[in-house]
Fold:
Amino acid sequence: MNRLERALEELRRRKIGQGMVLKPQNIYYLTGFYPTSFAVLLLGKETKLLVSPMDERLAFRCEVEVEVVRNFRRRLRRIESRRVGVEKSYASCEFYERYLRGRQVVSLGFLEEMRMVKDREELRRIKSAVRVAEEVMGGVAERLEEAESERELAAWAEYLLRRKAGSAFEVIVASGRNSAVPHHTPGEGLDTASVIIDLGARVEHYASDITRTFSLNKAEGFDELYEAVLEAQKAAIGRCVAGAAARDVDLAAREVLREYRLEEYILHSTGHGIGLEVHEAPRLSGESDLILREGMVVTVEPGVYREIGVRVEDMVLIGKRPKLLTSFGK
Structure:
C-alpha cells in the first residue's frame, strides 16, 4: 500500500467524506509534486490535485489526476461532503471563512503521523543533506578567524549551502553576548570567544540541521557550559531508541543540566523531528506523549543561555540503538 492509499484508507476509517490537503509538504509526500503556488489535494469521494495555472506545466509530475483551477472559491464550493478534513494547524482563518463555512471540519493530523517514520528513500535524501551541511560547517569554521562580522559569516554559509544544494533555513551565527539568544539574527561584529553556528541543507526537499559552538579565545565560564551541554546531549542521545517516550529524551538532558545547576538557563526543548520540514513531529519535549518508533529522525540539541550561550545539535536515527547521522567534531 503506497502513501496515498494509506491516507485514503485512514480517511475511510475516520469517516471523513472529503479531505483537503493544503500544506505543500503533505501534498508532495502523497503525490510526488511540490506546488509552487496555492494548491489543494482532494482526498476521498473525489481524489484530485487542484493547481493554479502557475503550476500547470509542472504538475505533470504528479501521481494523481490534476485539474487546473482559475477560481478556487467556486471550485471548492462544489464539494458536496459536509464532513471535511483539513490540516487544522495549517489552514488560515481566511480559508475557513471562505471555503469551509457551514461544514463539519475535522483534523487531518494523521498525515503528520505518517511522515514521522522515514522510508529508505527519505533517509537517503536526509543523509545527503547531512553531508552537505557538515561540509559547509567545516568551511565556515575555517573562516572564523578572518571573518569580521556575524553577518559576513552567515552569508558565507548561505553561499556554500546554495552552491552545493539549498539552505533549509536562515543560518544563525550568534557570538559573544548574542550567543545567549537562541534565535539571534546575525549582525555586525564577531566575538570569537563564543560563536554558535546553526545551519542546515536541503536536498530533494529534505532537510538537515546541525549546530556547533566554537571558541577561539575562550570566554569566562565557557568550558563549564560546554562540558555540561555535551554531557546532557550524550545522555539524551542514549534515550533515542524505539519504544522510549519522547519526553524521556528531554528529561535526560535536563537531569544532567540540573546537576550542573544550569536548569534555569534552558530556554527550549531538547529536540525535534526533521524531514520535509526542519521542525516536525515528534517533538522531544517534556510535554510530549509520543513514543519513539524505528525510522524516525530527530535532532538532539540541548542548550544553555547564560551570559553566553552554548548549543550542540546532532541528528539521530531512531532504532534499537540510536544512530548518529551527523559526525562533525565537537
In short: The first strand starts at residue 18 and ends at 21. The domain at 3-115 is CATH 3.40.350.10 (Creatine Amidinohydrolase; Chain A, domain 1).
